[in-house]
Amino acid sequence: MRLLLIEDNRDILANLADYLTLKGYVVDCAQDGLTGLHLAATNEYDLIVLDIMLPGIDGYTLCARLRDSERAHVPVIMLTARDALDDRLQGFRSGADDYLVKPFALAELAARIAAVLKRSSGTGRRELVVGDLHYDLDTLGVTRSGQRFHLGPIGLKLLEILMQKSPAVVRREALEAALWGDEPPDSDSLRSHIHSLRQQIDKPFPTPLLHTVHGVGYRLAPPAHHGKT
User: Percent of the chain at pLDDT above 70?
Assistant: First the structure.
């Protein structure tokens, strides 16, 4: 399970990260709203722990932006020193799944994380979305505009990486390492799999999603994000 912690207090952030790492979670950290939003938008997390009072973008705004984005399904637990009812209600209105008032015991946060993850896992919503392309990570179903595709194991893994990183460019070397480790079959293997993937998810449609960045790698992005490729 991968968590994102967004907290501007360095000591609190370090304590949370150390404790949750010992609990077996993979933890990424951010100390301001802009960095937190960037990480949340470009990576796939199982849950986000979000402080409200942040430099750059406050927690309410950040959570609301997530709920309007392709990461709308990610559970959020808000942390705050504010315990007034109006503050808690504002947190829930912005899209938080739970709300924990400082100071709190680390064991209570861990228990709440486990409870929220248990609830969210029952929804079957582990889904990646880029434009009109959807990939259900639980059923391995891939659709675009309602049309279903049947991809092999390499195609599914390739698609997962590109969708998780969207709209960022993923370098050829990173893709080859993720697919085959240190020994890719040959220099044209990745190109062949990209071609096969493109034939399925792009060729039947007027607008391409999979773009080649010459000399660098590939990216999967809707038209508004791809720019020149």
Answer: 90
Report the CATH number at residue 51: 3.40.50.2300
Structural domain containing residue 97: 2-121
Query: Is the distance from CB of 25 to CB of 2 less than 8 angstroms?
Result: yes
Query: Cβ of 211: how many Cβ atoms within 10 Å?
Result: 21
- Say whether pTM exceeds 0.85: no
Residues paired with residue 48 on neighbouring β-strands, in sequence order: 4, 76
Q: How far apart are CA 81 and CA 83, in angstroms?
A: 6
Q: What is the three-class DSSP state of 135?
A: strand
CA distances from 53 to 36, 59, 127 (A): 13, 6, 30
Task: Please report, for the domain that includes residue 208, its CATH number.
Answer: 1.10.10.10
Instruction: Say yes or no: 103 and 133 in one domain.
Output: no
Rounded Cα distance between 204 and 208, Å, is 9
Domain match, 12 and 94 both: yes
Say which amino acid occupies 29: C
* Mean pLDDT of the region 159-180: 88
Q: Among 71, 99, 121, identify where a domain stops.
A: 121
Helix (DSSP H) and strand (DSSP E) numbers for the chain: 9, 12
**What is the rounded CA–CA span in Å between residue 223 and residue 212?**
14
User: Which amino acid, one-letter code, is at 187?
Assistant: S
Give the three-class secondary structure for 171.
strand
Q: Are 40 and 74 in contact (CB under 8 A)?
A: yes
The structure tokens listed for 187 are 């220099």
- Residue 170's beta-bridge partner residues? 218
Instruction: Return the higher-pLDDT residue of 225 and 105.
Output: 105
Same-domain status, 104 and 132:
no
